[in-house]
Amino acid sequence: MSNDEHSSALKEAQARHRQIVDSARSFAIIVSDLQGRITDWNAGAEHVLGWTEEEMLGQTMHRFFTPEDIARGRPETEMRCALEQGFSPDERWHLRKHGQRFWAAGEMTPLKDEAGNVCGFVKILCDRTGQRRTTVELAQLNATLEARVAERTRERDRLWRNSQDLLLVISPDGRFQGVNPAWTRLLGYTEQELLGKRVEEYVHPDDAEATRAAMREARSTPLAHFEARSRARDGSHRSIVWVAASEEGVIYANGRDVSRERAQAEELARTNAARLRLALAVGEMGVWEWDVRSDRVRWLEGAAALHGCAPHEQPADFTMERYAQLIHVDDRGRLKASIEAAISGGRIQRVEYRTIWPDGSVHWLEARGEMFFDAEGRPAVMSGVTVDMTRRKKTERDLEFIARASAELARLVEPRSALDKLAQLAVPSFADWCVVDMLGEDGTLERVAAAHVDPDKVQFARDLYRRFPPDPAGAHGAWKVIRTGRTDIVQEVTDEILEYAIRNPDYRAALRELGLRSFIGVPIVVHGRATGVVSFITAESGRLYEERDLAVAEDMARRASVAIENARLYQVLQESDRGKDVFLATLAHELRNPLSAIANAMKVVELSPDKHERVRAATRIVGRQIGQLTHLVDDLMDVSRITTGKIELRRERVDLRAVLSGALENCRAEIEAGQHELTLALPPEPAELLADPNRLTQVFANLLSNAAKYTERGGRIALALEATPGEFVVRVRDTGVGIPAERLQDVFRMFSQITHPLERSQGGLGIGLALVDGLVRLHGGRVEALSAGAGQGSEFVVRLPRPPQQAAETPAAAAAAQPGAQAGPGRRILVVDDNVDASEALAQLLGLLGHEVVGLVHEGIAALEAAQRLEPDIVLLDIGLPGLNGYEVARRLREQPGGRRRPILVALTGWGMDSDKARAFEAGFDRHWVKPVGLEQLSELATLG
Fold first, then answer.
1. Is 657 within the bounds of a domain?
2. How many angstroms separate the Cα of 359 from the Cα of each of 316, 362, 541?
3. E-strand spans in 682-723?
4. What's the CA gap between 909 and 932, in Å, rounded?
5. What is the pLDDT of residue 811?
6. How far is Cα 189 from Cα 168, in angstroms, rounded to an integer?
7. pLDDT for the residue numbered 566
8. Residue 613 belongs to a domain with what CATH number?
């Protein structure tokens, strides 16, 4: 073939290819270079967006983005995401030529040249406005857009640091107020060189006046577009296209270097045809053609791949009837109706249908085509584009599963019912199998739910589970999820994986018989710990889970966790006082864990020799916060002890005046912070009674703290003590928010709060007055609340009985502190805690105290192995551990052969009730320490024997 013939054939093929692509009029196919400047614009783009190819070539894709998306840098974000991830899905509002907004769905993908180098982007859009929203949803969108404006500052800061474009802030007097790092990279200037200089000094002299005019325009219009040549440090000039906007006289501008773009324009024009072919492949699109007269179907670019075939595998004699054999039998009628409509009407037709690939898998396609007629008006050729819709359909099905499961789980009030319902709902829409395993109290896994469409297979699976319980050390499966607390995915269950993960050959054979294909195991997290696993497994469907399926699985596990917690809370609400105690103990446990990590970390900082004063000051601040949290925990535990009658009063003869002074000192910082006027009236003679001084200090500190908290700044607080023949009367008055008359009877009830309408953050847990009432009653007294009403201040009156005059002197409960034992040599210590931060901080603190930390482990099984291997002197052992809990670890360590050196076991836990201590000692612990552990307790380690 001659060169002319070859050139003619090439042009004809390119024209034909372009005709086919342009036939997809409902799909806007837009090609740009690496800077987002449009290099190709198909007929579909003109149909969808309104601009002609001549109007758009050379323009940036910003033109059809909304102003808010442009302000957020959405076009640049899409290009960056496409480069990093291979594609960037897009479904949002866009603009047509005349400013009309429409909802479009599509994606952007990187475009590569024949050498495999990324040379631009392809953006494909399809108008989805009619399917998107009702009028009410559009109103909701406007509200959402207003909310997103609030995020502009954070997004702008990230864009400022990472943008490859020049970003500029110009003060009202036309000087540089801020520049981003791209100025150094592109033009060679540092920020210090530019700040305070006039902008015109750094542009080409011929462009100075135009720059000043553009800045004036920017201050009077929403957006100003202009171009100026910027002078680089080396004296060269670069063409920069600017977009500028102003706010309160300050101009914000984005500049893009287009010098290189213009140099590449001719080269890009020569490769447009090749890029379009690549765009179809990257966009998972296929082009096809049907000659109606000869009934011949031709698969062009990408069409074979959409049907699971290689390009050369299309049959030689491929008719529309033979093509229909590739389509799911339930969808063939829909395709036939679409073809008949095209023949009769000639308009663009759209149809969705399923195809069966050679491997038996089912895939969704969306085909759009247009019928072309000959001169006599007879149908001649139908051309179109097909897009793979499998991913979208799968997402829709998964979202339907989530919605259905959420509705069902919300109605359940029993944990096992919730888990069983979750398993049933997952099959078969998301999985062929769904099983749920939960940790029992003895640290073993129990299968609580299993689902499959075939009941016989469910029974087979239960029998299999009993014969071959999960291996706690397994490389995959439920125990791995429990140990790590993270999701486990096996995208394809191969024979090699089964050989590696399953040691028992009979168990492997049984699993092969089930035909397992893919697996996702997700932890069920309750109170921050993995207490169970939900496993989604595919088999008959042939589905292979992808990374994106993790989001669905994890979302369902979270919803199951919430359902379990809600169900348990519902059951707890049915209990009486025992339920309240469980709540308080659990809350104390949850608060003590972070307190332990913070306290130990701060002690490490405080004991380090190279401290600065600022760090020490910060340490003291954090220490005070820890003190407040610890006080809260103690209050919670005190309420629990009062309600169960387990609190101990350490009575001694005390002077009530000294108690009140101590309580006042505890609250003085709060009173001074509120700039309150304090009046104190104490009698000159002693006010002696038999009482626990710490508990009474707690009572009056609570009352004074409430007075300071609920009195507006600059109020008055009065503390007075009166002595009557039979009792002492303490009055705490304030000029604060007062108490409504209908609430006076409720203020001493648990969790009751009187909240200032303007300062709701002052509320607290509502236990302070309940604790006051309980402690006063334990001392044989009573407390009452008085108030004239809201805004009229309040008064709390505490009445305590006076002791008989002949009462014997009660010895003080606490003797003078004795000198501490001489510290012994450093000990070999093993630290076991599933809270990584807490264990690491504790290890550092122990090292500073002269001990050797021989190991840090975070689960029960690992603790057993480490204790046997390292032979520590002392094991600091957390109770709540994954795998085996601390009680079981202690029992097993005590059961080891007598020849092995026996370590001292110290329980570290947030559970501090008497029953918890008894259980710890029964399991073999030598000490029971409640978190957070202070230096005083840690100092005892050197002398433990």
1. yes
2. 21, 9, 12
3. 688-691, 716-723
4. 9
5. 39
6. 13
7. 74
8. 3.40.50.2300
